[in-house]
Amino acid sequence: MRVRDGISVVVVMLFVVLALGCSKSEPPKPAAPPPAPAVSAAVEGKALFEQKCGVCHGLDRATVRHESKEKWAEIVKSMQGKKADFISDAEATKIVEFLAAEHGKK
Fold first, then answer.
1. Model's pTM, two decimal places?
2. How deeply is 72 buried, as exposed, middle or buried, from its count of CB atoms within 10 A (0-12, 13-18, 19+)?
3. Sign of CA pseudo-dihedral 93, 66, 56, 76
4. Lowest-confidence range among 9-23, 44-58, 81-95?
């Protein structure tokens, strides 16, 4: 009977050790990375200028001019008319913002 009691105690202790070992909490997962910073309007406008306007002429064409925001809007609007649907109104707005900020009248 003592052997049976000894085996029972060992088996019970084994289950207790297994149960405690399995119940350990996992380390906390790292927090999600912060969202990427939004692209500034100037950077996006410059990229659009290079992508859309650069098909026909380079950035140097704009850098030699210093126009008011209204004049840049006129110029971009006239360029929109040269090829339908190539520059959307939203893209044109960003391009105008870039041109006015970087190459506006001072």
1. 0.61
2. buried
3. positive
4. 9-23
Q: What number of other Cβ atoms are within 10 A of residue 3's Cβ? A: 7
Looking from the CA of 11 toward its CB, the CA atoms found within 13 Å total: 6
> What six digits make up the tokens of 1?
């009977």
Task: For domain 41-103, give the CATH number.
Answer: 1.10.760
Distance CA 46, CA 103 (A): 11
Residue 71 CB neighbours (<10 A): 16
Distance (Å, whole) CA 1 – CA 7: 10
**Boundaries of every domain in the chain:** 41-103
